[in-house]
DNA sequence: TTAGGGTTAG
C-alpha cells in the first residue's frame, strides 16, 4: 500500500512538472502509463490536472476534469473546487464561481479560508465590494479563522474600489483587534492603492512606517513607487529609483523592466529604452504578453514596423494570444507612419478577430487622418464614435484648426468643455487665435471666457 | 488552490 502511495506521489510530482511547463499531452500520457503499471491516480493527481488545464486551456477544460475524476472513483475535494472557482473568475465567469460555491455545499465539500479569500477577491474584481464585505463578515461570524491573505484581499479590494480611508481604517482595526501587523505584501498593497489615488502624503507615511517596522522593501515596492513617479511626471525621481535598484543589486523581473522601458519610450528616450530592453533580453527572462507588447511599442518607436509585425508571430508561437494593446500599438504606429490605409485595414482585422472598436485606436486614426490632411474622413470617424475623451477632442480640434475650419472647432471645443474635459493649452490658443484672425472676434471672446469659467469650476470642484 | 508591481493615443 505504502509503495503505491509513494508511487502515486512520484506520479503526481511528474504530472505537476509537465502541467507547469504546459505539456498537457505528456501529462495525460504519463497518467495512462501510470495506470497501466499500477500507479492509481488520486484526488491530487486530478487537482493537478485541473490547475494545468485551467492555466493552459481554460475553465471548461478544467471543469471537465471534475467528471473524469468522479468516473475514476476519486472524490473532488476543497482544493478541486477552489481551483475551479478561481479559474472561472479568471475567465470572467463570476456566476460560474458562485455556482461552484453552491455546488460544494450540495456535494458536502466544506469551503475553507482559501475558498472565501478567492470569492472575496473575485467579488471585488467584478465591482461588488459590498458583497465581498459581506463574505468577510460571514467569515468572522462563523468562526472561520481569517489569514493574512484575507486581510490583504480586503485592503486591496477596498483601495481598488476607491475606499482608501476605509481601507486604512480597516488595516488599523485588524492591527488593534486581531494583532495583524501586516507584512511587505500589505504595505505594497497600501502603497500601490494610495499611489493610484494620488494620495502621496499617505504614501510617504506608509513608506516611513514600513521602514520603522524594519521591513526591507522588495522589488515590488520599488517598482510601484517608480511607476508612481513616472505617471505623475517625476521622471528624474523615477530614474533615480531605477539606478538605486540596480545599485542595491535587485534582480529585475519583467514587471520592473516594463515599468522603466515604457516611460523611457514616452519621454522620447528610445535609445535608452532599447539599451534597457537588450539588458532584459540578456537576462533570459521569459517574455509574457505585456513584455512583448512593450517590445512591439519600442520597435514601432524605433521605426522598425516590420520587426514589430514579426513579433506577433513570435507571440503566437510562444502559445500566447495577442491582445488589444498589441494591435492598438500597431494601428497607432501605422497612423504615425502615414500608412492610413494599412491602419484602417488592421482595424478591420482587429474587428474580425473579435476585438471591439476601442477608444485609443480610434483616437490614433483621427490623429493620423488629420495629420494626413483628411479632416473630413477624421470627422466621419469622430461622429461614429460612441465614447470620446480629451484625446479625441484635442486631435479633432487641432485638425480643424490646421484646415482653418475655426467655427466647427469652436463648436467642438465648447462641447468638450461642457462635458468637463480639458484640451491641450496650445490647441485652445490655436482656436482663439484662428477665430480672431478669421474675423470671429465675438466667438473668440466668448470662448476665452468659457475656458476661464471651466478652469475655475474644475478648481472649485 | 487565494492577496501586491508592468503594456497603447493628443
TrEMBL record:
Pfam families documented for this protein: PPR, PPR_2
PPR repeats: 42-76, 77-111, 112-146, 183-217, 218-252, 253-287, 288-322, 323-357, 358-392
InterPro entries recorded: PPR_P_subfamily, PPR_rpt, TPR-like_helical_dom_sf
Top-level taxon in the UniProt lineage: Eukaryota
Keyword presence, Zinc-finger: no
Record keywords, A-Z: Repeat
Residue ranges of coiled coil: none
Cross-referenced PANTHER family: MITOCHONDRIAL GROUP I INTRON SPLICING FACTOR CCM1 (PTHR46128), PENTACOTRIPEPTIDE-REPEAT REGION OF PRORP DOMAIN-CONTAINING PROTEIN (PTHR46128:SF307)
Family: Belongs to the PPR family. P subfamily.
Protein name, per record: Pentatricopeptide repeat-containing protein
Record organism: Stephania cephalantha
Amino acid at each position: 500500500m505504502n509503495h503505491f502511495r509513494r508511487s502515486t506521489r512520484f506520479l503526481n510530482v511528474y504530472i505537476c512538472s509537465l502541467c507547469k511547463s504546459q505539456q498537457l499531452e505528456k501529462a495525460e500520457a504519463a497518467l495512462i502509463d501510470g495506470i497501466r503499471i499500477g500507479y492509481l491516480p488520486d484526488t491530487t493527481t486530478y487537482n493537478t490536472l485541473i490547475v494545468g488545464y485551467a492555466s493552459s486551456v481554460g475553465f471548461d477544460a478544467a471543469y471537465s476534469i471534475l467528471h473524469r475524476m468522479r468516473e475514476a472513483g476519486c472524490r473532488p475535494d476543497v482544493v478541486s473546487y477552489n481551483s475551479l472557482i478561481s479559474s472561472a473568475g479568471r475567465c470572467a465567469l463570476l456566476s460560474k464561481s458562485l455556482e461552484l460555491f453552491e455546488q460544494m455545499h450540495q456535494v458536502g465539500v466544506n469551503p475553507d479560508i482559501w475558498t472565501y479569500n478567492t470569492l472575496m477577491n473575485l467579488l471585488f474584481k467584478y465591482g461588488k465590494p459590498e458583497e465581498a464585505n459581506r463574505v468577510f463578515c460571514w467569515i468572522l461570524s462563523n468562526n472561520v479563522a481569517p489569514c493574512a491573505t484575507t486581510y490583504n484581499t480586503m485592503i486591496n479590494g477596498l483601495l481598488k474600489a476607491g475606499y482608501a480611508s476605509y481601507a486604512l481604517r480597516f488595516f488599523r482595526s485588524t492591527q488593534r483587534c486581531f494583532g495583524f501587523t501586516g507584512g511587505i505584501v500589505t504595505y505594497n498593497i497600501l502603497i500601490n492603492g494610495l499611489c493610484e489615488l494620488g494620495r502621496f502624503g499617505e504614501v510617504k507615511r506608509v513608506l516611513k512606517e514600513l521602514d520603522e517596522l524594519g521591513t526591507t522593501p522588495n522589488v515590488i515596492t520599488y517598482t510601484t513607487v517608480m511607476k508612481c513617479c513616472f505617471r505623475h511626471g517625476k521622471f528624474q525621481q523615477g530614474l533615480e529609483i531605477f539606478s538605486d535598484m540596480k545599485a542595491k543589486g535587485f534582480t529585475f523581473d519583467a514587471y520592473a523592466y516594463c515599468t522603466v522601458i515604457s516611460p523611457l519610450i514616452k519621454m522620447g528616450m528610445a535609445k535608452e529604452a532599447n539599451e534597457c530592453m537588450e539588458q532584459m533580453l540578456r537576462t533570459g527572462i521569459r517574455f509574457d504578453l505585456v513584455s512583448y507588447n512593450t517590445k512591439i511599442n519600442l520597435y514601432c518607436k524605433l521605426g522598425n514596423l516590420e520587426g514589430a509585425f514579426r513579433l506577433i508571430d513570435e507571440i503566437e508561437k510562444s502559445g500566447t494570444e495577442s491582445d488589444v494593446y498589441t494591435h492598438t500599438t500597431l494601428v497607432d504606429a501605422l497612423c504615425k507612419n502615414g500608412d492610413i490605409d494599412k491602419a484602417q485595414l488592421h482595424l478591420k482585422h482587429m474587428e474580425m478577430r473579435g476585438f471591439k472598436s476601442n477608444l485609443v485606436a480610434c483616437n490614433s486614426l483621427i490623429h493620423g487622418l488629420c495629420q494626413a490632411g483628411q479632416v473630413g474622413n477624421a470627422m466621419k470617424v469622430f461622429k461614429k464614435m460612441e465614447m470620446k475623451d480629451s484625446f479625441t477632442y484635442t486631435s479633432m480640434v487641432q485638425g480643424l484648426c490646421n484646415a482653418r475650419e475655426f467655427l466647427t472647432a469652436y463648436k467642438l471645443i465648447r462641447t468638450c468643455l461642457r462635458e468637463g474635459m480639458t484640451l491641450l493649452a496650445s490647441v485652445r490658443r490655436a482656436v482663439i487665435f484662428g477665430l480672431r484672425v478669421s474675423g470671429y472676434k465675438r466667438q473668440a471672446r466668448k470662448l476665452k471666457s468659457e475656458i476661464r469659467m471651466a478652469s475655475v469650476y474644475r478648481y472649485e470642484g
